[in-house]
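Section: Multi-chain targets

For targets with more than one molecule, the full set of components is provided together so that the structure can be written out for the assembly as a whole rather than chain by chain. Components appear in the order listed by the source. The example entry contains two components.
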Amino acid sequence: MRELRREHMLNALLAAALFAVPLWAYLVDEPFLITLATRVAILAMAGVGLNLALGLGGMVSFGHAVYFGLGGYCAGVLAHHAFNATPVLMGLDGTNQMLVIWLVAMALSGLLAAMIGALSLRTSGIFFIMITLAFAQMFFYFALSWPAYGGEDGLPIYVRNVFPGLNTMRPWNMFVIAFVMLMLVLALFAMIRASRFGAALMAIRQNADRVAAVGISPFGVKLAGFVISGMITGLAGAMMADLTRFVSPSMMAWQMSGELIVIIILGGTGRLFGPVVGAAILVGFEVIFGGLTEHWKFWLGLVLLSVVLFARGGFIGLLAGKERHG
Amino acid sequence: MADPVLELSHLDKAFGALKATDDVSLTLMPGEIHALIGPNGAGKTTLMGQISGRLPPDSGTIRFRGQDITRLSVAQRARMGLGRSFQISSLIPEYSARRNVMLALQARQGHAYRFVMPVRHDRRLTEPAIEILTRVGLEGRASVPSAELSHGERRLLEIAVALALRPACFLLDEPMAGMGTEGVGRLVTFLKDLKQEAPILLVEHDMDAVFRLADRITVLVYGRVIASGNVDEVRNDPEVRRAYLGDEVSA
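Its structure, encoded as tokens over all components, is:
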């Protein structure tokens, strides 16, 4: 019980820090730092999506970048057509409304996750990892070779998509949108984890045979979890494209899938704020050490290695103790 | 005579040239404990796998409460009321004893796809869970993760989880395995009571416990049923003595 309260306090502290740093940057007019915090928030959101599949359900998807990229392309393609006033397909117009784009990104990501999940969740272990990777690479090469939306060069978003009542071109506004969405997604994650569905999903990770023996089909529960996971990561992808005002096939590359896994392992697999810590470490390393050396990923690798060897619960586990389900 | 709760007819299962189940037929009647015994490698585990749904038989049928369940999945059979315990304790290791039972209760109530209400304070789960843990004598260990329970306690928790399903038939795979004499004694008394609730198909190595508990015994050797009957019939069957009990007595 004490550990539980300690984790709550740590989570509150992390949320406050993620808000306070860009707030300070806003007050002293450091837009670069605000954008950095926005990046952390959006990457964390993508991580929360994967954390649902990997952390709760034990589904080690090495292809979550495909949802991230698909979300990104939703934002890019819809904005591209809205900008050029051309229909997307069959008379459907593009849009520059973020809210609409998010819905489309979530719907398509969910659909894709349902298809990939239905085919790959029959397998487990290394086969599951490889199949999810293969599907993601398939879409990566498709995006690479499809010239209509820039192909290899990617697709710029000239003007950031709009949000009702807020000028999204202002870094602070964009940060607030990302921060609020991250908090909502975290609340959703916490709610699912505490629910009957979450109880079944986490039990399947630990012992699927037992769950089947009490009468819950593991496949259906895993598939539902995988779809929700893909939708969240897709939403994050749409927001990331808007933040960088650019979408390219690299969002779908296996390196991106790997980064999402690294984020979760660094922060603490299955922990609510694990992806937030993981994303902050990743972006922090990139900025601090990326300026000093080209080989900053080597140092990140060392950190990852020590977490895997000495702190299996990630940084949240290190600071808040082992997770208890009660 | 009442209809059997569980009825296996002419089940066959081969792994390559090895016939692990060879034309096995047996019934489980309401109110009885039917013990399935046999030396190691007799095919008991394979047979249990086919009844629970983990292994498909090559031929033959399994009927449960009058329905053909031969092609149903493990989860479908469990939902119909087939409550099983595992030979090697198979629980949710990070979940406490209470949450292991709650998971079974949640499955029986049929709500795996509820996303909103937290389970921790769901009294439709927590209250019956404590009741069931009290029945098997584990109420004092309710909040302990099952991985941290003792071997004997895990065996009891296996039974508690099966109880939570309120099954129409219990499938108990070596519930006494690795338990001390005292634990076995308590479990024998408990199972004698339990059969009033639902009949039990019991696979067990502890011969003493089997003879004290079973209403009927079926002996399996090399996948075949070599004898079936009440305790005395099986004890005095010359083929059984030669193939199985003889080894035990001399050992």
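Chain B has two domains: 1-81+169-251, 93-166.
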